[in-house]
Each structure stands twice: as structure tokens, then as C-alpha cells.
Recover the amino acids of this structure.
């Protein structure tokens, strides 16, 4: 290639490249600096974790377990992975942790594959009580041809009906039970279900995808302390790390069996650049996890109370609204979940529509509710008074019917005060050979 050709070709950026870079930059600015993000399944990494994430490890392969790889060149990856497992295990009270699942769903699949076989049965938390699609016949259980049977639901307490669930387990004797999920405001009855499933020779799986950060921060009970045999989780929701998953257990035999299912059944290479970013986040959670989790729970309750005061129907009022990072609204008076979520996005407030306990399954495209999560805005330093402001913004859009674009401009201006990630190490002072904390 001649130098003349290179100059001519590089003087004009290809349109496709320009579009991709433009959309990416617009997204980064809009989502990180102009919107109030209330998606309950998202978070943001610290600058230090992000710098560890963008490393040469993203180009490399390391199939297998540390120091027993099928590829050469993994000596440093192995050291990082061993430390990730150890640090996460310490945070979870002495668990054996496998960080290789590349998502919470992959973690679930690996565990379900070991605990059940095609044709066996699993009892799951009812969809109304938060079951994730991977727990159901429509997702991972169905792919593994394991029959899913829902435990009874207690509509009054927005939870699994523990007494009826125990009777169901004793009657059908499933291979395993699954608690935890993607929409739940209150802890599921771990001990009661654990005792029941163990009495019939089964195991209890707890999907902590949403509440891992609250468990580490000691604001949500650790299911492994209350009878769960194995815990799966995502590492990017209330736990503010890179997208990925983990499996944790205190049963060494089970740990080894699940490890053999993770690879080679469900994961080949496990996206190695996740590991140093996960390690940095885990270390930050050792220092900041309790303060962060405490503020998340405080903010969720404050947001629920503020929305109720503004006239919204917030689920769980008689129970104190929430004990997690989530708040759930019934927005049928405001036109339903799909319309409300769209209007709020136009106002730079990002939420997701969601089925409510009394919605039929076919209402998924336009359900009655919204699911909100406060963990990311907490990371950016917002506290209880900010939750009142967010509730007022939402009221203006959904109740007062103000022009969303007008509200969006005010939201963008409001967000300018909250762009620095808190509850982490200051990357700039670390580079100077010192260590400061951002709180």
C-alpha cells in the first residue's frame, strides 16, 4: 500500500464508522450524564474497575480452571482468577466461588444441569414473587427439559406462601427448589424452603442476581447462612461490577460438580477481562459495601414513600414498601406500564415496564407496572432528598402531563451535580501513589 493511498483513504472517515462512533458517544453522554437511570438490573463500575476491565485480557483465551488450562500464556490470568474467587468467597462468608459464568443465566444453567436431569422436577418461586425467566419452562429449565412447578403465592405479603410451598415440596419431591429472582421487594423464605427440600433429598438454589451487593453489604441476609445449598448471582446489579455471573457454595463436592458443568457445557472462554474488574469491585466492596448497601436500601424506601406522597400507587405499602433496591408501581391510572415507561424515557428518566402480581402472562407487552431500582443513582451520590426530587419529576410527566421534553431539560441540568461515582477508590490519587476514598 502506498503512502499516497493511505493519506487519501484516511482523510475521510467511512460513514459506517462515523455513525457507530457517533451513536456510542451519544449513548455514553446521555445515559451517564443526562439521565436518571432507575433500571433495577443495571449499575456502573468505578473508574478504577473500568480501567482494569479495558485490558489485554479481553483478547485472550483460558479454557478450564486456573493452572489447568488448555491454552498457554495464562499465568497472570490464573493468578487473578484465583484471587477473584478468594475475595468473593470472603465477602460471602467463606464460600467457594466460581467466577467463570459469563452471566447469571449461565450460572443458573450450570447449577440446574447438575441438580436435575431431563424429566425431573424443580419448584420455583412464582412469577409474581420474582422468578426470572431462566427459572422457567420458557427459559433455562425448559432448555434442560426439567419441569417447572410454581410454589403458591401469598398475594397479601407479595411473597412465596411458605406453608403451602412446604406441603407442595413434600408432596411432589422435586430435585431442587429455586428462590430469588428479578422482581422482589422482600426476602424469600429461605429457611422454610431449605428445610422442606432437604427433607425430600433435594437442594435449594438461591438466585441472588439482584441482591448480591446488598448481601455483601450486609443489608440482605446471606442465603448460604440460612440453608441454601448454592447461590447464583450476576455481578453488575446491586453488586457494581462488570457484567457476568458467579456460583457460590460451601459444599466442596457440589462446587466441583458445578465447575465441570460450567466448562465445557455452558462456557468456553469466560471473557477474561471481567476478572480484574470484578476483583477491583470486590475489594472496593470490602471497604465501601456496607455504607453503599445501607444507602441503597434507604433510598429505595425514600423513593417509594415519595412516590406514594405524590399520588402513585406503590406496591407493598402495608409492608413498608420495600427492603431491597427495588420499588414497584401500579401505573394503570397513568396509562399502563408501556406508555409510562416511554414517557419517562422522553423525560430522561429510564425505567422498565413490568408485570404485576395480578397481571395475566399475556400482558407482558403492556403490563400494569413499572420496576424501579435506585442502586446506580446511589452510586452517583444521590440520597433520600434526591428521591423526593425524582418522584416530583415523575409526577410532572405521568400525573400532571407536562411535556416530557421540557422535563428532560431539567433532568439533564439536575444530573450535572451527580456524575462522579462514589463508594470506591479515587483512581487519580492511586496513580500518585496514595489512596483516597470517594464517599
Amino acid at each position: 500500500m502506498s503512502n499516497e493511498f493511505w493519506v487519501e483513504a484516511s482523510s475521510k472517515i467511512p460513514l459506517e464508522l462515523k455513525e457507530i462512533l457517533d451513536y456510542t458517544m451519544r449513548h455514553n453522554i446521555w445515559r451517564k450524564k443526562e439521565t436518571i437511570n432507575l433500571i433495577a438490573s443495571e449499575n456502573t463500575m468505578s473508574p478504577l474497575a473500568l480501567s482494569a476491565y479495558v485490558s489485554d485480557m479481553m483478547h485472550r483465551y483460558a479454557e478450564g480452571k486456573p493452572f489447568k488450562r488448555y491454552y498457554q500464556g495464562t499465568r497472570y490470568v490464573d493468578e487473578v482468577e484465583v484471587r477473584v474467587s478468594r475475595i468473593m468467597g470472603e465477602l460471602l462468608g467463606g464460600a467457594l466461588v466460581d467466577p467463570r459464568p459469563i452471566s447469571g443465566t449461565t450460572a443458573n444453567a450450570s447449577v440446574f444441569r447438575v441438580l436435575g436431569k431431563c424429566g425431573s422436577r424443580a419448584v420455583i418461586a412464582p412469577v409474581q414473587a420474582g422468578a426470572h425467566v431462566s427459572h422457567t419452562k420458557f427459559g433455562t429449565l425448559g432448555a434442560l427439559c426439567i419441569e417447572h412447578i410454581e410454589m403458591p403465592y401469598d398475594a397479601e405479603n407479595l411473597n412465596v406462601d411458605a406453608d403451602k410451598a412446604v406441603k407442595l415440596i413434600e408432596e411432589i419431591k422435586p430435585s431442587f427448589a429455586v428462590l430469588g429472582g428479578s422482581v422482589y421487594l422482600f426476602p424469600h423464605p429461605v429457611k422454610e424452603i431449605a428445610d422442606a427440600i432437604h427433607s425430600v433429598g433435594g437442594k435449594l438454589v438461591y438466585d441472588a442476581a439482584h441482591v448480591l451487593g446488598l448481601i455483601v453489604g450486609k443489608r440482605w441476609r446471606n442465603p448460604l447462612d440460612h440453608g441454601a445449598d448454592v447461590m447464583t448471582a450476576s455481578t453488575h446489579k446491586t453488586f457494581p461490577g462488570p457484567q457476568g455471573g458467579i456460583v457460590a457454595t460451601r459444599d466442596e463436592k457440589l462446587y466441583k460438580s458445578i465447575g465441570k458443568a460450567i466448562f465445557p457445557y455452558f462456557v468456553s472462554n469466560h471473557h477474561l477481562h471481567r476478572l480484574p474488574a470484578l476483583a477491583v469491585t470486590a475489594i472496593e466492596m470490602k471497604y465501601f459495601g456496607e455504607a453503599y448497601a445501607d444507602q441503597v436500601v434507604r433510598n429505595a424506601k425514600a423513593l417509594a414513600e415519595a412516590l406514594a406522597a405524590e399520588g402513585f400507587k406503590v406496591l407493598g405499602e402495608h409492608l413498608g414498601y420495600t427492603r431491597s433496591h427495588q420499588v414497584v408501581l401500579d401505573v394503570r391510572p397513568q396509562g399502563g406500564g408501556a406508555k409510562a415507561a416511554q414517557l419517562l424515557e422522553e423525560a430522561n428518566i429510564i425505567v422498565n415496564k413490568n408485570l404485576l402480581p395480578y397481571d395475566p402472562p399475556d400482558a407482558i407487552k403492556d403490563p400494569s407496572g413499572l420496576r424501579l431500582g435506585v442502586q446506580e443513582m446511589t452510586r452517583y451520590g444521590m440520597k433520600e432528598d434526591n428521591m423526593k426530587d425524582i418522584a416530583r419529576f415523575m409526577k410532572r410527566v405521568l400525573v400532571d402531563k407536562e411535556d416530557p421534553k421540557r422535563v428532560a431539560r431539567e433532568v439533564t441540568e439536575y444530573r450535572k451535580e451527580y456524575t462522579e461515582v462514589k463508594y470506591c477508590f479515587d483512581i487519580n490519587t492511586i496513580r500518585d501513589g496514595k489512596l483516597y476514598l470517594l464517599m
Notes: The first helix runs from residue 3 to 10. The mean pLDDT is 94. Residues 288-424 form a domain with the Aspartate Aminotransferase, domain 1 fold (CATH 3.90.1150.10). The chain has 16 helices and 19 strands.
